[in-house]
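dUTP diphosphatase: structure tokens wanted.
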Amino acid sequence: MSGLDVAIRLIDPRLSDWGFPRWSSALAAGLDLHACLDADEILEPQAPPILIPAGFALAIRDPEWCAMVYPRSGLGHRDGLVLGNTVGVIDADYEGPLMISAWNRNPAGTAPLTVRPGERIAQLVFTRIVRPALTVVETFPEAADGARGAGGFGSTGRG
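Answer:
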């Protein structure tokens, strides 16, 4: 048990018919998000992302939690349907309608993707938030194992 209670307000009544809310398996981390569209939406390769309604709003209201919207693994890897903002963060105080920023990452000149009404196109993952105390310093205290980062991004090499 997570100890987190989240209220969900259905905006699109079709969600109930599509089985929302549900996780695809007993151990799935992500709650399936459906495309609440009235007609098919065509996503051309490399075109600007579009916002697709998820059909609901939620109230997390616990400052130790947030929700994150991720693409579905197979759709992203196999088909090229990813999120235009890579990951969507739903803060605990946001209670408006959830929207999915859908983008076709495939190269220009390839076939467009079709998103159909009710299709599961993303997933919502709830996660804890840590808000550390931040201290502004002129220099860092000496690290026990020596400092890293002097070599820049990727300085530890491959493998």
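The mean pLDDT is 92. Residues 19-128 form a domain with the Deoxyuridine 5'-Triphosphate Nucleotidohydrolase; Chain A fold (CATH 2.70.40.10).

Cheers.
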